[in-house]
Structure formats: C-alpha cells, structure tokens
Amino acid sequence: MNQDIWIKPAIIEWSQLLLNSYNQLLGRQLIERNSNPEKEAEALFFAPMVIVSHGKEINPILNYGNQTALNLWEMSWEEFTQTPSKKTVNSLNSEELKQRSQMLEEAQNKGFIENYRGVRVSRTRKQFLIENAIIWNVIASNNQKLGQAATFSSWTYL
C-alpha cells in the first residue's frame, strides 16, 4: 500500500534532500516546512502537486513519486521506482525525447529550470501535457549531485 511509503527512513531522508535542494537552488520552499522530517515527508507525499525524482544513473531510474504522481502515472510505488525516467515519455515521439534530454541537461548545468512543458505517458499509455514544471538538481549538503527532481501542478490529458 502506497500510503505507508513516506514513513520509511530512506524516504524521509530523500524527502529532506528534495526539500533542501529546492530551497537552496530556487530560494523558496516547495512545501511549508515545520522542522519535523517525518511530518514534512508525509506532507510531500500527499501534496496536491506532482513531485518526482530520479537518480544519476546513465539511464536514470525513478526513485520517488508522491501519491499525486503515482495516481497520474497509474502505478504503484514498486512499479514507479523500477521505471526508467525516460519511459515516462512517449518513446515513439523522438522530438519529445530530444526535448526532454535537452531540458535535463540544462537543469543539470544551471541547477534548475522553470516553465518546462512536455507530453508524458502513463503506464496505460494515457498521454498528458505537463506545464509550468520546475526541474532541479537534488544535491547533498556537500553539493554532490544525487539526481534530479521535478514538480508541477498543471497537466491536461490529450
């Protein structure tokens, strides 16, 4: 059951990295913070906007998706966190894959980007347009890059 995911120590720790990186790079908070890592992990997991991330593998694997993301992509936590990040894009659309690659590289170099838009696809092949997405690097306290994350509140089924 997805509801208990946020309470796992590794997820609480990753949630802190997501929140701290967002704050450090964008100069604002992703969610309201309260200095309680467990409560913040819960708030992040049940936030009404999509929050996703992947590691820094050559072919990055998704390693976090909040409940809104899991619902949108129609996946369980287990399915989501075994999915290569690029599989969220319609692989038949080479232009969309190229655009996604350029966006990730730009975010990697700048630290974050705002106002990204692109088409994504769910597990059951439903396509949706995401708009006004923010992509940022997930960084450790020593500034080591650990992956990338994204958040958005606006999507339209196509």
Structure description:
Helices cover 35% and strands 28% of the residues. The protein has a single domain, classed as Beta-Lactamase (2-Layer Sandwich), CATH 3.30.450. It is globular, with a radius of gyration of 15 Å. Strands 1, 2, 3, 4, 5 and 6 form a 6-stranded antiparallel β-sheet that branches. With 158 residues, it is α+β, with helices and mostly antiparallel strands. Helix 1 (9-26) crosses helix 2.
Keywords:
alpha+beta; 5 helices; 6-stranded antiparallel β-sheet; Beta-Lactamase; about 35% helix; globular; about 160 residues
**Helix count from the secondary structure assignment:** 5
CATH topology: Beta-Lactamase
Oligomer class? single chain
Q: Note the overall shape.
A: globular
Low-confidence stretches: none
Q: Secondary-structure element order, as H and E?
A: HHEEHHHEEEE
Share of β-strand residues: 25-35%
Distance between the termini: 29 Å
CATH class descriptor name: Alpha Beta
**Would you identify the CATH H-level superfamily?**
PAS domain
Average the pLDDT over all residues and give the rounded result: 93
Number of strands: 6
CATH architecture assignment: 2-Layer Sandwich
State the helical fraction: 25-40%
**For the report, how would you describe the main beta sheet?**
6 strands, antiparallel
User: How many structural domains does the protein architecture include?
Assistant: 1
Structural class: alpha+beta
CA radius of gyration: 15 Å
